[in-house]
Amino acid sequence: MEQSDWSWRYVLLACDCFIAFGCFYCVDIPSALQTEIQSSYSNCTGASLLNGSCCEECLGLGPDRYNQLYAVFSWTNAIVVLPIGVLLDRLGNRMTAILSTSMAVLGSSLFALSVTSYFRMTSIMFPLMMFSRGLLGAANGGCQLVQDRVIAYWFPDKLGLAFGAIVSVIRCGNVLNFFITSNIAKIYGVPMALWTGALMCGVGCVAALGYCVLDMIGSRKLDKNHVFNIKSQPLRMSDIRNFPLSYWLVAVMISTYYSCFIPYVANGSKFIQDKYGYNRVTSSYINGAVYDVSIIVCLSTGLVLDRFGGRAISATLGSALSVPVIISLAFFELPPLILTICFGTFYSITVVSLWPCIAKVVPLSTVGTANGIAAFLQGLNIGLTNLGIGKIMGAVEESDMNNRISKWKISLAILLSQALVCSVLGIWLNVNEKLKKGLLNGRHKKASLTEKTSLIQNREDGFYDSTDSGYSIQS
Question: How far apart are alpha carbons 68 and 131 in whole angstroms?
Fold first, then answer.
């Protein structure tokens, strides 16, 4: 029996999709509650009560410290994913899945605890928020690496479909956050909105347990038939040095593109409020639209790429088309909902094209390490970008709206530069693929019996041949 012959692998994929669901619900909770977290406390009396400008639950962190919450999340993710990637290749997926999802529950619970009456507006509140966000970032890194390695093992023939399914499900977590968090905070208060995030992380724990059971059953069936067994080798620096140029181009493209997208989402709710004059709840809905479209686009893009190929081309197009969107957000008065939907569409195309490329250009035994390096670069750059935006916007909100809009334009210019770098690297990647006859733009084709046997043996031994990734392992 081969992976493609085991029908239960799609149930396993469903569990794998939900492992990071709670993490992605929680990652943008600060964005859905940006006004409450960032703005200063004010009593709801008189005119402020009528026009909705009051905020009795506001925590008064300011733009700088607000963006530090995102920076510490990204940096912890960046620091942790590299050793987790190495350990994942040695210890396996099951243990890492359980530990990562449990850590997510702990981190989200501590974040909710930080705004309760015990710690709210005390000297402990912000350090506890930072610690909990760092813990959640570490958990998110582990969950994502597990997900990537699971699909590399169980879906070598349908990487686009599997990755598209994962992105669609975790984006449901983002969408759900932007739809309900601000309303929960409005009706029941900010602490209840944050405890809801901890509950969503519990969904990931249940999914991890389900995955472990199914993975154990499936692995026994495969081992029994002596068809496929991944043997992770001790990590050697030569493995990393031998990663091809195409891998490093993909890794830096991931870093730069995410660094133009994630910081925008982190600050988008407040930006839309300031520039377009929408209220807090409506701004959260519009900002969340970047993920609404991802649910459909990610899965459909994965299916198209599996069928027709062209990953490097589609990644380059997605990043290049994001450039005019960012320019429009900064300098033109186009409807923000249309722009955010476009941004979400191009984001979906880009990331679904890029991440599966890693499993196609490095040995299977080093996929965890390769994904860890890419995630490290991604988290490092996102954190620096968020920190830079926080410094530009200031420690406290600018009272003059014209000055505030000018600062938003400078911040968006930084995001624009990231998108431009990603687009240039995408062109380089396509030229490199053309010159070296790479397979990132090629279609999957069914292997002959001889080629299939060779591919299985190479992957068992941890070796990689560039011709391998052109075939799907199926009967």
Answer: 11
How confident is the model over 14-28, as a mean pLDDT?
94
In the structure encoding, which two tokens stand for residue 165, read together? 């399914």
Predicted confidence band at 472 (pLDDT cuts at 50, 70, 90)? Answer: very low
CA distance 428 to 440: 13
The closest alpha carbon to 21, from 170, 137, 122, belongs to 170
Residues 6+ apart with CB under 8 A from 30: 37, 66, 69, 70, 266
C-alpha–C-alpha distance, residues 187 and 190, integer Å: 9
Assign 326 to helix, strand or coil: helix
How far is residue 20's CA from residue 203's CA, in Å, rounded to a whole number? 9
Q: Give the phi and the psi of residue 293 in degrees, each rounded to 5.
A: -70, -25
The CA dihedral of 49, 51, 53, 56, to the nearest 10 degrees, is 20
In the block, residue with structure tokens 């472990």: 212
CA distance 253 to 343: 17
Nearest-angstrom CA–CA distance, 230 and 9? 17
pTM, 2 dp: 0.81
What confidence tens digit (pLDDT) does each residue in 405-451 have? 999 999 999 999 999 999 999 999 999 999 988 778 876 554 443 44
CA distance 288 to 176: 9
- Residue 393 belongs to what H/E stretch? helix 367-393
Amino acid letter, 468: D
CB 160 within 8 A of CB 299: no
Report the distance separating Cα 342 and Cα 321, nearest Å. Answer: 9
Helix (H, G, I), strand (E, B) or coil at 396: coil
CA distance 252 to 377: 7
pLDDT digits over 205-225, tens only?
999 999 999 988 888 877 644
- φ, ψ of residue 217 in degrees (nearest 5): -65, -50
Q: How far is CA 104 from CA 159, 191, 206, 275, in A?
A: 26, 17, 12, 34
Contact call for residues 211 and 166 (beta carbons, < 8 A): no
The Cα 64–Cα 67 span in angstroms is 5
User: In the numeric block, which tokens belong to residue 400?
Assistant: 């003059």
Q: Cβ neighbours of residue 467 under 8 Å, at least 6 residues apart?
A: 439
Cβ–Cβ < 8 Å for 79, 137: no
Tokens 């015990």 map to which residue? 118
Across the chain, what does the average pLDDT equal? 84
